[in-house]
Design goal:
This protein has 3 helices and 4 strands; from the N terminus they run H-E-H-H-E-E-E. By secondary structure, the protein is an alpha/beta fold. The radius of gyration is 17 Å and the shape is globular. About 10% of the residues have low confidence.
């Protein structure tokens, strides 16, 4: 996974070092479909590699908008692969949920 991320950075100069919150859209293409917990758990090493390679600042919700990963079966002749789309949060397609911040004691009180 780390090698694939480093290769992607070399091939995509526009994938600059993260300094802001980002959104990832992950699509897994495989010979069979995984159950939801396997699909989510399988993204852990990928997220860690993206942080280590500075594609993401961090994988916490403050720095990452991560919708549920998608998946589909390979079509005839297609090899299994994973597609990772990286967006600066302001460029992300679709609605981006706001990150809930902890309430500050006394804030908003008269």
């Amino acid at each position: 996974t780390m090698h694939a991320v480093a290769t992607a950075r070399d091939a995509s100069p526009e994938l600059r070092k993260a300094r802001t919150r980002r959104r990832l859209v992950i699509t897994r293409v495989g010979a069979r479909l995984l159950d939801p917990d396997g699909l989510i758990g399988g993204c852990k090493a990928l997220l860690d590699a993206l942080v280590q390679q500075c594609v993401l600042v961090d994988d916490s919700p403050a720095w990452l908008d991560l919708p549920m990963p998608m998946q589909r079966k390979c079509v005839r002749g297609e090899k299994p692969h994973t597609v990772v789309e990286v967006y600066d949060d302001c460029d992300a397609p679709g609605p981006s949920p706001a990150v809930e911040k902890p309430a500050t004691p006394g804030a908003g009180e008269p």
